[in-house]
């Protein structure tokens, strides 16, 4: 494998890994910080339930976005494998399997993207 291909793959995957790690650490930090100021039962401020619902919606949307990005990255890797197989005149099964897997990743990534865009009322 050429070093340029390896650098391109690292350039595509490493930032996504760091971003996911940062989001996970931020979620854990927020869970630890959120404590009521008093131990006795207080009334919630106006819009508190809506704020919690919006935070959950944003988290689900962000999760779907990461899933869609990851599936698209995997589809890109299988495009590269398929291109190599076709350029080296490989037998049918050697390029048919990456082609089928590529189509599956494209479909799954598209479905995750549709969940981001469409979003059901109960999700």
Kindly describe this structure.
The longest helix has 40 residues, at 48-87. The mean pLDDT is 80. The protein has 3 helices and no strands. By secondary structure, it is mainly alpha-helical. Helix content is 80%, strand content 0%. The protein has a domain at 79-118.
Nutshell version of this structure?
By secondary structure, the chain is mainly α.
DSSP summary, beta strand count: 0
Percent of residues in β-strands: under 5%
> How would you describe the oligomerization state of the chains in this entry?
single chain
User: How would the global form be characterised?
Assistant: elongated
Q: What share of residues is helical?
A: over 70%
Residue runs with pLDDT of under 50 for 5 or more positions: none
- The topology string of helices and strands comes to HHH
The radius of gyration computed from the alpha-carbon positions, rounded to a whole number of angstroms, is 21 Å
Derived from helix and strand composition plus strand pairing, the structural class reads: mainly alpha
Secondary structure elements and their pairing?
Blueprint: H1 3-33, H2 48-87, H3 92-118
Helix pairs in contact: 2-3
List its salient traits.
123 residues, mainly alpha, 3 helices, 80% helix, 0% strand
